[in-house]
Amino acid sequence: xxxxxxxxxxxxxxxxxxxxxxxxxxxxxxxxxxxxxxxxxxxxxxxxxxxxxxxxxxxxxxxxxxxxxxxxxxxxxxxxxxxxxxxxxxxxxxxxxxxxxxxxxxxxxxxxxxxxxxxxxxxxxxxxxxxxxxxxxxxxxxxxxxxxxxxxxxxxxxxxxxxxxxxxxxxxxxxxxxxxxxxxxxxxxxxxxxxxxxxxxxxxxxxxxxxxxxxxxxxxxxxxxxxxxxxxxxxxxxxxxxxxxxxxxxxxxxx
Length: 255
Prior knowledge:
There is one protein chain. 45% of the residues lie in helices and 12% in strands. The protein contains ten helices and seven strands. It has a seven-stranded parallel beta sheet. The protein is elongated and about 65 Å long. The model is unreliable at 164-177 (pLDDT under 50).
C-alpha cells in the first residue's frame, strides 16, 4: 500500500536534508525517493543523517527534470505554504492522507521544493492538489525534511494505522478511510495530461482563440481545470481525438 507513494525532492541544496528525509521515510514505511537535480548527491553527510536508512539513499533515483520524476504518476501533490494568485484545490496533510488511503491503486507523487523558495508556480501547476501544513503565523517556516516526516506519518496512519497492535480493544485506533475508488478506466498519467494540454493549446492558437504572444491566464486556468478533473486515460484519448478532428478540418480548409 505504501510502495505506490513516491517522495520527490526538487533541487535540494543541503545534502543533510536528503538524508533526514530518507530517515523519515524509513520510519514510516516509505521507500521510493526521487531527487530532481540535487546540488550535492551522493554525499557522506546525507548518509550520516539517514541514520539506518542508507538503502533508501542507495535506491534513490536522481532525475534531470520534474517530468522524469513524475513519469507514470496518476496523482501529483505539491507542498505549498501559501495560495498563489489563481487558487488551486488544497488540502491539509491529514485530508491528503485520507484521500490517498481511499484510492488504494493510484500511483502518488508528492513534491517538496527548494529550502529557500519551495516549488515554482510552474511546478505547482503540474499538481492535482496542493497540501499545506498549518503553522505558527509568526514563524511558519518548516524544514523540508520535517515536512516529509509529517506527511509520511499522516499517510502511514491513514493507510496502515489499524494494523498497529494495541493492549486491548478499548484502546484500538479507528482510522477514517474514504471509500475505494472504483472506475472502469485507469487514471491518466501526468505525461498523458501534459500531452493533452499541449495539444489543446496548439489547436486553440490555430483556431484564433488563444494569442500565442499573450496567453494571459487562459492556459493556467485550463491546466487547473484538467488537474481538478483528473481525467482517466479514455477521457484523455477522446479529447485528443476531438482535437485531431478539428486539426483535420483546418487542414482541409487550408487546402
